[in-house]
Amino acid sequence: MVRLNEKMKEIFEKAPVYPLATASKAGEPNVAPMKSVWLVDDETVWVADNFMKKTLANLEENPRAAIYLWGPETGGCIQVKGDAKILTSGPEYEKMRAEVKAKSEKYPAKSLIVITITEVYTCAPGAGAGDELL
């Protein structure tokens, strides 16, 4: 199992937006900015599905995802890849739904995407750009 270290968790927490990349079974890519994202533990990310269309369709066909983590205040840049599952019921889904609805009733919180981290790469410029960290 891949577990984020303290620096990686700090980058994750400080990222202002979380671009989520997916691909269809045929390899058609999609990337969408996400805001309702939580680092649940050192190896699990939750993403709330409020308005997903292509992203959700891609995950149904190909349950792999990547999240790009960077921002002016993060102090670094990483890409997290992992295996995704879609939940529409159960305690995890209900917890996510309650958190999203507490922010605003305008968000539908249709499903919960649970990403188990399998790989982490650096995306900082320089000689090591793209190197696998975990």
Automatic annotation (TrEMBL):
Transmembrane segments: none annotated. Pfam families: PNPOx_N (PF01243). This is Pyridoxamine 5-phosphate oxidase. Residues 4-122 form the Pyridoxamine 5'-phosphate oxidase N-terminal domain. It comes from the Archaea.
